Amino acid sequence: MAVHDRSRGHDLAALRDLNSAVVLRELRRESPRTVSGLAGATGLSRPTVEALVDQLTGQGWIAEADVPATGRAPGRPARRFRFRAEAGHVVGVDIGLKAIVLLLGRLDGEIVARARHDIAPEATGAERIELLRGHLRGFLAGHGLGAHEVWSLGIGVPGMVGETGRIRSVIVPDWTDLDLARRLADDFPGPGRILVENDVNLAVLAEHWRGAARLADDVACVLLGPRISCGLMIDGRLHRGRRGGAGELGFLPQLGLDQVRKDLVLAGERLPGESTTDALARAVRAGEAGALDALDRFLAGVAPAVAALVLALDPELVVLGGALAPLGESLTTLLSAHLAPLTLHVPHLAVSTLGREGVALGAVRRALDSAETRLPGHRHGGTA
Predict the structure, then answer these.
(1) pLDDT at 268
(2) What does the alpha-carbon distance between residue 320 and residue 330 come to, in Å, rounded to a whole number?
(3) Which residue among 124, 247, 371, 384 is buried most deeply as judged by most CB within 10 Å?
(4) CATH number of the domain to which 7 belongs
(5) Are residues 333 and 286 in the same domain?
(6) Pairing mode of beta strands 33-34, 89-95
(7) What span, in angstroms and rounded, lies between the C-alpha atoms of 356 and 117?
(8) Top mean-pLDDT range of 6-10, 284-288, 317-321
(9) Is the model's pLDDT at 323 over the cut of 90?
(10) Percent of the chain, pLDDT > 70?
């Protein structure tokens, strides 16, 4: 009998946790909500919802929302509750060859702070790690947070990243076979708090979350610039490949992308402090002679690689991002013309509108997915 009682108590506790997760999920989906509204949305009884709301309020997950003073109906207004998105924070990082981008996000995904810092292209791998440490500390301190208050930290890096998060890169040679999460573990201790991923993989996550691919589930995101790479999403899930190398078109010399990049470097005059791609984009927008031809030659060289990708994956959407994304429609028009004779059909092409924050935004999304494990009811599948 005692064993039966313990089992029954365990089952009741599990049911309570599951119901808590259901209520919390509804509040994360839409806030504020009344108790009656939550009962209707979850199918739980009003007394059950009232008890769960009291429990979640006491735990700090939800709070009573302020009721606007205007437009009130006579009598006491119904209590309304909201999810406390400020109960935790995540950080998304893009550490590229020339800059570090930092984003601070709440648990509802709202970006509440951002920063960008230039990196000298010749900086060593060790120097880049120390720069990242210092900028992270300053970024968090500047917003009144300590490292222990960051639930999860997503980091996008150039180059291949293995399943365990170890970098296998020839782009930053000092980082080949580097376990970046382990190097930062003293700053952010705890298992699974630091998530390292290939930058273009994070870019496709960002496009699916808040960018051009929100309505598509089979997506290729192609970075166009001095580095050409691709991230893939199949059936709404990031496709990394067996060893994290899916989409790394630049490693195949037969595609000629090395020469394409060299041709891009030769295009256009640069202003002081301006990158080659920024100079080309500026010249195209200004209608300078030869600039559009230079862009067309570059896209003609890229087209065979994109065509191979389209023929292999048959995506519903190809998102063009990277340094040349500000050129907008010029990219899609020219690339479509070059793809037409190479593929069975030209997929829908769209240009990223996320700017230089795309990778860091994908890192925020990755960190939020990890942070789900700390919410009530996660072990029962209660996610939002």
Answers:
(1) 60
(2) 11
(3) 247
(4) 1.10.10.10
(5) yes
(6) unpaired
(7) 12
(8) 317-321
(9) no
(10) 91
Q: Which domain holds residue 216?
A: 212-353
Higher pLDDT among residues 294 and 153, named by residue: 153
User: If you search the block for the tokens 């984009």, which residue do you land on?
Assistant: 281
Which position has the token pair 């041709």?
Answer: 263
**CB neighbour list of residue 35: distance below 8 Å, 6 or more residues apart:** 46, 49, 50, 53, 78, 79, 81
What count of residues does the chain have? Answer: 384
The mean pLDDT of 244-265, rounded to a whole number, is 80
- Provide the pLDDT for residue 133: 96
Least confident among 55-69, 142-156, 204-218: 55-69
Express each pLDDT in 170-201 by its tens digit.
Answer: 678 788 889 999 999 999 988 889 999 999 99
Helix axes 276-285, 257-265, angle to 10 degrees: 70
Placement of tokens 């059950």 in the chain: 48
Give the pLDDT confidence of 291-317 residue by residue, as tens digits: 888 899 999 999 999 999 999 999 999
Cα separation, 335 vs 305, in Å, equals: 11
- Strand pairing partners for 198? 157
DSSP output for 331-365: HHHHHHHHHTTTSSSPPEEEE--SGGGHHHHHHHH
255 and 150 in a common domain: no
- Are 323 and 282 contained in the same domain? yes
Asked if residues 295 and 276 have their Cβ atoms less than 8 Å apart, the reply is no
The identity of residue 68, as a single letter, is P
3-class SS letters over 4-21? HHHHHHHHHHHHHHHHHH
Look up tokens 């009682």; give the residue.
5
Q: How far apart are CA 9 and CA 11, in angstroms?
A: 5
Cβ count within 10 A of residue 359? 33
Tell me the C-alpha distance between 104 and 254, whole Å. Answer: 41
Average pLDDT of the chain to the nearest whole number: 87
Residue where a domain terminates, one of 48, 83, 118: 83
- Asked if residue 225 and residue 325 are part of one domain, the reply reads yes
Residue 352 in contact with residue 319, Cβ under 8 Å?
Answer: yes
Which residue is listed with tokens 């919390």?
24
Is the pTM higher than 0.90? The answer reads no
Q: How far is CA 115 from CA 3, 35, 145, 353, in A?
A: 56, 39, 15, 18
3-state secondary structure of 319: strand
- pLDDT (mean) for 7-14: 63
